[in-house]
């Protein structure tokens, strides 16, 4: 899977590769007259040499990062079945288009008439997402899904204040991702956890009881839920909330399951964040950047962050005069580079391709479910959409946990599924293949998982000691937390 | 299960050693096992007043944070500073060197707590949750 | 059929295995009343067609490379080494996920560890995180952290010359957290008025936030600011919008600031119409557990070999949920990698050289403009600046239009940045501005200003 161990032993930190006098750059010749900074800057301000910065050549840098890259598993290499992350193929065309000088080389504060193309692109993306969600308008500002959640909750808060109401509580199912309660708290709300039904879905009766209490601002819900099951009562839940003047927030992490099949706008959703780095193929980049646009219903349109793009005829403007707006949630207009990629993806797939994407995602997940349900325990057996959640119950008999199964999968050349989430499933293995995969990759994964199930029964210690063939063996996370070493320090003589 | 008989126990898996009007508090062997390797312990400073069942601090493993609750009401006299550099003491010796705080308590503070047998029964019924 | 999806034979094989006739059966749980027939979007297009559409967008923009550009105001055009994109486009880097499985993510993890080290070196702070979204949200995180450390202090003192985008975001986040913000304006020399700052700070203040170099260009005197905050028991926060300034200017770490944070875009990241950019955040070891964002730490594997992992994750929302230090989920990993590559290429000499070249170029312009030029004049002729300065003018938009017609993007007008800014143009110079471009700008100003 990755390079041989011997390469790793030689790859130090860039600082450890340093050699006096090496340089990796050349600046343009400075033709303006030289200046003595000791004369132009106050003495206390002028910095000397920075300790510890490396001295390496361009060759060193290329070698160093090329070698580092080879220690990474990636979607380009194979299946990455992380539930809730939607690790689909990242099209190369998108990379090329985002790098066009006319798109990468423009400044956010250039006058509007100098960036009409950029504004047109934003307008097109917004309207494509409006069509895909069935909602009224979309803010493209948030930099990530969690960031979108915060923006959505801030809009809901402002809308309630506008009506003279100040309910303090946001309801969140116990199956929700941790960003949901975190975002609600940062938006100034208290959280009340709502237990799921025995099927792992929203408990309408519980919802009714909480609403009767009268202090509810919103319900945050993921559809399909984090078990990959469509919430059957979503329309009723929305009606119950709206009757009480409360809002419905939808976490769009699982949107890949129903693009082109269903519309959140018809479910009664008031705000929905979309993870462009999940559903719309923008690359994960080892942890970011992403983009988390938020689509809203008419009720929340006045509160959208500023600015938004408006069109009059062929002319685009950045509209800032929106007195009820929550303001800005980040600098400038959004992660424009990722927005470019997402629109290119939407154009490449088109109306039929987007639906086929969702269909493929759901079919692939069900194929994996069929292939594994005799070997792993299904925590909840409702119908799966784009992801399926197993757990380690059957393997626990021999002391093998989900983390051991995950580490052993690395030896088979696969990235493991998401583990230990959702919280309502103990020892979870959340598997989401996405639509990018064909039969042979899925069959290879099924075969590996079956083999591990057999190993767990017959040779559990083998599984517990995994991985063996990765660039590093299992890493000591306890030590990293107990004795944090978070940077390199130059050795003193 | 290792359960010193001279201690009292709470349903949130803390133990109490009473000595006059002082109570030493820690978490049980069962609790530290559930948490896994402990990496950090957040404890209150001396002088803090806590009611019975109120949050006293936090105990962190690599993947989880567990709240620590006061099994008895009282005023914090001292926290176990050794845990700053050696949080693993809670795993290694939960009833001894891994103690967490010492409180000044009122005479009947420990009423309602379980004895060793009671705690053992409670854990068995909970199903190892 | 589509080139990003599996094929017909795949589909048939899987339908048979699952035991359904068509995929529609798998959507049985989706109620009819939420369904859509067909999306009203164009049909799927070939690469050539998509490329044509996007080139059409691109050519309707005035790309910086086609002009002599002196734009700054938080987004700066510096060097763009070819090595960066070449490495970034390795699939192992850009198509990898967050490194939650460290055994197969050592590339990403080691690069972030190096990034954290670079940030500590540049800021002279003890610990840095794996990056944030941008400078604006970095400022917010600093204020939120200060409020967590000092929960009984609801007030924040902020310099008036803080980037307006950063301030706007702080205002948005501050409202639900019920933070009260006191603004201390700049004085006649363009720097924060120290007397007024000292008066504004009280025992109810959790953070003192000052940008340096500030939005209008002048470099603040950081020592007294840190001292004033320290005396009141508040956290001192330095915000940096032009990160290359750290190559020439002493950072807040040396003056005892508690947080140095801001924007790293200047180190070779594309302007990209405002994003994705790269927030950075550095603070004291003492605040380690209050730190927002991801952290990479060093450890060993089962064979005793050095390796890296995400650590202290219990601060984060996926574990601590409602009590997390931040709701941030991503870092800007790929941008952090880009900056790490650039900083590696520049190294010890380059970080200083790029700063000196940028400063020198700006000083050349300032020297020529010292006597004024037409209706334009330096707003703060006596204040020390790094590479950016405010040129006062009563009609900056009209002036900029005329200059653009001559192929010069002379700067950012202060007229559209919200109220309160002196009317004029923020002019920034970097090592990419040649002598010829500078002379062209000066000559044009002479004629048109």
Describe the fold and architecture.
The complex is a heterotrimer of chains A (493), B (129) and C (449). Chain A is of the alpha/beta class and 493 residues long. Chain A folds into 3 domains: 5-69, no CATH class; 93-348, Aspartate Aminotransferase, domain 2, CATH 3.40.640; 355-479, Aspartate Aminotransferase, domain 1. Chain A contains 16 helices and 13 strands. Chain A has helices at residues 5-10, 37-40, 58-69, 92-98, 101-104, 116-133, 145-162, 179-186, 204-213, 234-243, 336-372, 393-396, 402-411, 439-458, 460-464, 477-482; strands at 137-139, 169-173, 190-194, 216-222, 247-251, 271-273, 294-296, 308-312, 315-319, 377-378, 388-391, 418-419, 428-431. In chain A, strands 1-7-6-5-4-2-3 form a 7-stranded mixed β-sheet, with helices on both faces. A 4-stranded antiparallel β-sheet of chain A has the order 10-11-13-12, with helices on one face. Chain A is globular, with a radius of gyration of 25 Å. Chain B has 129 residues and is of the alpha+beta class. Chain B has one domain: OB fold (Dihydrolipoamide Acetyltransferase, E2P) (Beta Barrel), CATH 2.40.50.100. With 449 residues, chain C is of the alpha/beta class. Chain C folds into 3 domains: 8-50, no CATH class; 64-80 and 349-448, Aspartate Aminotransferase, domain 1 (Alpha-Beta Complex), CATH 3.90.1150.10; 84-340, Type I PLP-dependent aspartate aminotransferase-like (Major domain) (Aspartate Aminotransferase, domain 2, 3-Layer(aba) Sandwich), CATH 3.40.640. Helix content of chain C is 37%, strand content 14%. Chain C has 14 helices and 15 strands. Chain C is globular. The chains are: A alpha/beta (493), B alpha+beta (129), C alpha/beta (449). The interface between A and C is large, with 205 and 207 residues.
């Amino acid at each position: 899977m990755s390079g041989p161990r011997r390469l790793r032993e030689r790859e130090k930190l860039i600082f450890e590769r340093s050699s006096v006098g090496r340089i990796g750059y050349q600046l343009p010749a400075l033709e303006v007259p030289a200046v003595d900074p000791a004369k132009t800057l106050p003495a206390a301000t002028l910095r000397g040499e920075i300790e510890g910065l490396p001295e390496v050549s361009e060759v060193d840098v290329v070698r160093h990062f090329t070698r580092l890259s080879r220690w990474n598993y990636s979607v380009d290499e194979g299946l990455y079945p992380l539930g809730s992350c939607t690790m689909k193929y990242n099209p190369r065309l998108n990379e090329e288009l985002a790098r066009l000088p006319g798109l990468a080389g423009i400044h956010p504060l250039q006058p509007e008439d100098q960036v009409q193309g950029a504004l047109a692109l934003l307008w097109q993306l917004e309207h494509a997402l409006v069509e895909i969600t069935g909602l009224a308008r979309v803010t493209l500002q948030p930099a990530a899904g969690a960031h979108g959640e915060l923006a959505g909750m801030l809009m809901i808060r402002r809308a309630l204040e506008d009506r003279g109401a100040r309910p303090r509580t946001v309801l969140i199912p116990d199956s929700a991702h941790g960003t949901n309660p975190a975002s609600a708290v940062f938006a100034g709300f208290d959280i009340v956890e709502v237990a799921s039904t025995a099927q792992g879905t929203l408990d309408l009766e519980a919802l009714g009881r909480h609403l009767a209490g009268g202090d509810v601002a919103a319900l945050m819900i993921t559809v399909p839920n984090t078990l990959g099951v469509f919430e059957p009562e979503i329309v009723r839940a929305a009606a119950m909330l709206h009757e009480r003047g409360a809002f419905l927030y939808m976490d769009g992490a699982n949107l890949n399951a129903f693009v082109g099949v269903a519309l959140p706008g018809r479910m009664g959703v008031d705000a929905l964040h979309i993870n462009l780095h999940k559903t719309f193929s923008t690359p994960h980049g080892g942890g970011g950047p992403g983009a988390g646009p938020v689509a809203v219903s008419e009720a929340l349109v006045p509160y959208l962050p500023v600015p938004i793009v408006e069109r009059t005829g062929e002319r685009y403007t950045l509209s800032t005069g929106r007195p009820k707006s929550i303001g800005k949630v980040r600098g400038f207009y959004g992660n424009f580079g990722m927005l470019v990629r997402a629109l290119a993806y939407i154009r490449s797939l088109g109306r039929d391709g987007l639906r086929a994407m969702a269909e493929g995602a759901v079919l692939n997940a069900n194929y994996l479910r069929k292939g594994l349900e005799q070997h792993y325990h299904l925590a909840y057996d409702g119908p799966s959409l784009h992801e399926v959640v197993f757990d380690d119950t059957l393997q626990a008999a021999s002391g093998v946990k989900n983390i051991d199964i995950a580490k052993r999968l690395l030896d088979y050349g696969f990235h493991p599924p998401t583990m230990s989430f959702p919280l309502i499933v103990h020892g979870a293995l959340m598997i989401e293949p996405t639509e990018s995969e064909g039969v042979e990759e899925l069959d290879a994964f099924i075969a590996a998982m079956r083999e591990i199930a057999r190993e767990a029964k017959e040779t559990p210690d083998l599984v517990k000691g995994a991985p063996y063939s990765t660039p590093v063996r299992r890493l000591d996370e306890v030590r990293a937390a107990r004795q944090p070493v978070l940077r390199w320090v130059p050795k003193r003589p | 299960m290792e359960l010193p008989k001279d201690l009292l126990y709470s349903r949130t898996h803390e133990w109490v050693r009473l000595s006059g009007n002082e109570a030493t508090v820690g978490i049980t062997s069962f609790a530290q096992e559930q948490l896994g390797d402990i990496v950090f312990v957040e404890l209150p400073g001396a002088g803090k007043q806590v009611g019975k069942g109120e949050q006293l601090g936090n105990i962190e493993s690599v993947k989880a944070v567990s709240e620590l609750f006061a099994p008895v009401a009282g005023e914090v006299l001292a926290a176990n500073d050794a845990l700053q550099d050696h949080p693993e003491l809670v795993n290694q010796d939960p009833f001894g060197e891994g103690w967490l705080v010492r409180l000044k308590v009122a005479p009947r503070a420990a009423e309602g707590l379980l004895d060793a047998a009671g705690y053992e029964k409670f854990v068995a019924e909970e199903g190892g949750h | 059929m589509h080139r990003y999806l599996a094929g017909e034979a795949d589909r048939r094989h899987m339908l048979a295995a699952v035991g359904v006739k068509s995929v529609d059966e798998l959507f049985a749980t989706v109620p009819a009343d939420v369904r859509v027939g067909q999306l009203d979007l164009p049909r799927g297009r070939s690469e050539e067609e998509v490329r044509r559409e996007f080139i059409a967008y691109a050519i309707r923009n005035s790309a910086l490379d086609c002009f002599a550009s002196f734009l700054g105001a938080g987004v700066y055009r510096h060097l763009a080494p070819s090595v960066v994109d070449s490495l970034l486009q390795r699939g192992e880097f850009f198509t990898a996920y967050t490194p939650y499985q460290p055994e197969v993510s050592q590339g990403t993890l080691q690069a972030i560890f190096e990034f954290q080290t670079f940030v500590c070196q540049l800021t002279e702070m003890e610990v840095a995180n794996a990056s944030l979204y941008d400078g604006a949200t970095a400022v917010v995180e600093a204020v939120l952290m200060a409020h967590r450390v000092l929960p009984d202090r609801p007030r924040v003192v902020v310099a008036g010359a803080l980037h307006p985008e950063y301030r706007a975001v702080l205002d948005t986040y501050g409202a639900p957290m019920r933070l009260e913000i006191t603004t201390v304006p700049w004085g006649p020399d363009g720097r924060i008025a120290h007397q007024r700052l000292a008066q504004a700070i009280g025992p109810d203040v959790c953070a003192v936030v000052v940008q340096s170099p500030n939005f209008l260009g002048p470099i603040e005197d950081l020592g007294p600011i840190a001292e004033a905050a320290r005396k009141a028991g508040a956290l001192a926060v330095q915000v940096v919008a032009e990160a290359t300034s750290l190559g020439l200017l002493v950072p807040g770490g040396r003056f005892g600031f508690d947080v140095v944070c801001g924007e790293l875009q200047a180190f070779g990241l594309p302007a990209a119409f405002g994003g994705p950019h790269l927030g950075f955040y550095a603070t004291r070891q003492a605040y380690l557990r209050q730190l927002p964002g991801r952290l990479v730490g060093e450890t060993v594997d089962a064979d005793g070999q050095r390796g890296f992992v995400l650590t202290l994750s219990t601060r984060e929302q996926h574990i601590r949920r409602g009590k997390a230090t931040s709701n941030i989920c991503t870092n800007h990993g790929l941008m952090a990698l880009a900056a790490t590559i650039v900083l590696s290429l520049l190294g010890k000499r380059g970080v200083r050289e790029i700063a000196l070249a940028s400063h020198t170029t700006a000083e050349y312009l300032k020297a020529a403009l010292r006597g004024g030029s037409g209706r334009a004049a330096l707003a703060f002729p006596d204040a020390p600046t790094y590479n950016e300065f405010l040129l006062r003018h009563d009609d900056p938009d009209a002036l900029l239009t005329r200059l653009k017609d001559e192929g010069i993007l002379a700067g950012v007008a202060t007229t559209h940045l919200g109220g309160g800014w002196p009317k004029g143009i923020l002019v920034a110079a970097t090592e990419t501005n040649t002598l010829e471009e500078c002379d062209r700008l000066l000559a044009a100003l002479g004629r048109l200003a």
